[in-house]
Amino acid sequence: MKETASAKAKAIAANIRKLREYRDYTQDYLAAKLAISQNAYSKIELGYSRITLERLFIISAVLEVNPADLISTETDKLINLINF
Question: CA–CA separation, 14 vs 60, rounded Å?
Answer without folding.
Answer: 13
